[in-house]
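Methods — Computational structure assignment.
A single polypeptide chain was analysed. Its primary sequence is given first, followed by the predicted tertiary structure written as structure tokens.
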Amino acid sequence: MRTQVTEEQRIEAAEELREIAQQISDLVDQAMEVYRSAGGFEARARAYWHAHIKDAVEGELAMSMMDAADELQRIGSYKDEFADEEE
């Protein structure tokens, strides 16, 4: 059963998700810089772990963290439409 939350709580949660997503994005960029400056193969890292993490946070996946934050803000307008499906 879904926990009842207010519109304000959803908006706050969406903002927090966006902040966390930005922090993750910044940290993966920082990790890339550390790796590159230590002589790592930047092209390989960008093609794999850097790309996967960035994509999950802000990218084109079925649902990125940014998409989840956007959904929280929209959910109030259509939450009743899907309530029966989750029970």
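Note: The mean pLDDT is 84.
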